[in-house]
Design goal:
This protein has 300 residues and is an alpha/beta fold. It contains 8 helices and 12 strands. Strands 1, 2, 3, 4, 5, 6, 7 and 12 form an 8-stranded mixed β-sheet that branches. Bound molecules: flavin mononucleotide and iron/sulfur cluster (2 copies).
Length: 300
Amino acid sequence: MGREVEAMPFLVRGMYFSGTGTTEKIVTAVAEVLARTEENFFRNPDIDFTPPAARKKTYRFGPQDVVVFGVPVIAGRVPNVLLPFLDTLEGNGAIAVPIVLYGNRNFDDALIELRNILQEHGFHTVAAAAFIGEHSFSKVLAAGRPDEADIDVAADFAKAVAAKINAYAADAAGEDQPLDEALEKILAEAGPVPVDGEQPLRPYYKPQDRQGNHINILKVKPKLDETKCTGCGICVQVCPMGSIKWDRPYVKVDGICIKCCGCEKKCPEGAFYFDDPGYLYHKEELELGYPERKEPKLFV
Ligand SMILES: Cc1cc2nc3c(=O)[nH]c(=O)nc-3n(C[C@H](O)[C@H](O)[C@H](O)COP(=O)(O)O)c2cc1C
Ligand code: SF4
Ligand code: SF4
């Protein structure tokens, strides 16, 4: 005799790193709809691991958790500064939905890399997606995305994911063994969700000029126009690397910069700017090279 599927509650939460907020927007949209689509799904608080302090904690999950897990694409891959933190995750049989946000160029191997990381840390990936967000470097490339159409796609995706999870739960209810053990077995047999990307993973994407020479922007940092800065401190709070420090009455960028552009886009006075010629050239090449609208890619 099968048991009631409703007996298996799932706790849905978003978990994301998001310098300019595009990843946060999609992850929370998916988590919201997922949690209210089926009666046995409940909403748990999200985990924002953008602030450095949030990456000092260890996050442990269990078989009842459904984690909508998002990161932005950096150089075609999962941001490498996050790898030590991601290595501390403990899925313990939780369900995960890996999601990457990319700036209309390409997500290359970021989604397959994120999926693999989650699988290796004890999560079962049942669905995945790549969405488009306004490019960190630009206000033109994928401007304003994710937009309403993207949020609609995210909602449909969430509904499909909920149905898929409950189909697994229904199969588990038909097994002659404790529900969580049956589900664990079924999810393990189903294996990781197939996604686009190559294995072995390709190297990090390297920007090039028109002659094919590598443009190295690794050491580039934003500069501050002190005539605009009011010393409000927002940038000190938002920098995911903790690299914006007080230099009263202003601030200074002092430390590793991943060029997430959170400080530049969130400063209310527009006081940050980039003037590195290689960076500006690359930004313009991206804007010129990828003008057509790309659409989200879903793997359910
Ligand atoms: C250093 C850096 C490298 C990036 N590399 C890529 C890339 O390879 N492909 C792409 O399409 N977008 C790339 N982007 C754009 C981001 O993936 C995109 O804007 C994303 O929406 C940002 O997410 P966030 O708002 O959560 O920070 C890059 C952004 C940064 C900061
Ligand atoms: S957010 Fe802008 S105005 Fe506020 S302290 Fe930072 S640079 Fe200055
Ligand atoms: S200093 Fe660099 S890492 Fe920090 S918020 Fe600004 S662009 Fe992002």
